[in-house]
Design brief:
single chain, alpha+beta, Ribosomal Protein S5, domain 2, Alpha-Beta Plaits, 2 domains, six-stranded antiparallel beta sheet, five-stranded antiparallel beta sheet, 5 helices, 11 strands, Impact_N, Ribosomal_Su5_D2-typ_SF, UPF0029_Impact_C, YigZ family protein
Length: 213
């Protein structure tokens, strides 16, 4: 799993007009090629009467799958500009469809490239971009007498407490950045004179907004 990456927050859409042609940009997260293709198919079904439904997507940890489709526009003037905006923004697991209703005025190759690139940018802005960072939840079991101290120390150091359970003892589950787990283990040992019991859980992604939405 990647320690961090950027993707879209979720679904977004934007409408704009260029030389009487109406464009509608649709964006969503797609973690597999199948999900991306299903999203594209849904938009094409919705806009079956559109002149074009051009699309592109990037999927995979290493951007293994990259596809662009001009859907009848001149080769390289629609799908590729959309794909380039996704890649330039550094996004993973993202699909974009830009629907066009022709308004009677031809845009030319350069105009089409700019129009579809603008659609991708506006759609991504509407969806919003997030950064996903990998964290390891670490369950820290301590006596009640240490609860206040641990909670304060963790918050002072910027740790996110995922949950707190109260039983025979208190169990605080703190999120530690991937690769830094031993740091928290050492601090917990110091704060409790070695009495805290720690256990790691499966890594999880924590999302933070970058822009848009």
């Amino acid at each position: 799993m990647l320690e961090q990456y950027r993707t879209v927050n979720g679904y977004g859409e934007a409408v704009y007009e260029i030389e009487k042609s109406r464009f509608i940009a649709y964006v969503d997260r797609a973690e597999t090629p199948e999900a991306a293709q299903a999203f594209i198919a849904a938009i094409r079904k919705k806009h079956w009467d559109a002149t074009h439904n051009c699309a592109a997507y990037v999927c995979g940890e290493r951007d293994e799958t990259q596809k662009a489709d001009d859907d009848g526009e001149p080769s390289g003037t629609a799908g590729k500009p959309i794909l380039e905006v996704i890649k330039k923004t550094g996004l993973k697991d993202t699909v974009v469809v830009v629907t066009r209703y022709f308004g009677g005025i031809k845009l030319g190759a350069g105009g089409l490239i700019r129009a579809y690139g603008k659609g991708a940018s506006l759609g991504l802005e509407a969806a919003g971009v997030i950064e996903r960072r990998l964290f390891t939840p670490i369950a820290i079991e301590i006596d009640y007498a240490l609860y206040g101290k641990f909670e304060q120390e963790l918050r002072l150091r910027g740790y996110r407490i995922q949950e707190t359970q109260f039983g025979a003892a208190v169990t605080l589950t703190a999120l530690e950045e991937a690769g830094q787990e031993e740091r928290l283990e050492r601090m917990a040992a110091d704060w409790s004179s070695g009495c805290a019991e720690l256990s790691r859980r499966g890594a999880v992604y924590v999302d933070s907004r970058v822009n848009g939405g």
